[in-house]
Amino acid sequence: MLKKIELLKYKGALDFEKIGIILDNAQVELDTFSSDTLVKKRIYSILVEALENIYKHGHLPKENEEYYPEGILSQYEDNFILEISNAILNEKVEEFTNIIDYVNSLSDEEINKNYYKKLKEKRIIEEDNTGVGIMQIAKKTKGKLLYNFKTINDKFSYFTLKVII
After folding, report:
1. 30 phi and psi, to 5 degrees?
2. pTM surpassing 0.90?
3. What is the domain class of 5-164 according to CATH?
4. Is the pLDDT of residue 128 over 70?
């Protein structure tokens, strides 16, 4: 019977120093568990994007440490699984849902086309980067992006994104 192997786990507030440590640890674990350079690069790229999204878009409800940002990288059979969670404002739940559902509705070719179209339009600025990170993650995964939201209170929800690489 095969079991899921947890390679890396983090829970807590994020800053640039902690992100650097997480990425360094991920590199060590990936070197240990995979010899496929392309797979390692995909996982690392997804992890960078996911951590950047948490840093930029996540909110930290100070009253409850249970909802601090969390990331788990594991291996099951030939797949790597990355689960990233963080608190977001409830007002963003519908927007995130629409973006992920839209990206999930696209073929791989359509994801690439839409991603590069947004880059060419030079719309990747702080105020208008909605969905680009999700498209970048989707470009490197196997299958659809899995996600859910758990309501924390009237202001926050806990968002979890699961990707298979």
Report:
1. -65, -40
2. no
3. alpha beta
4. no
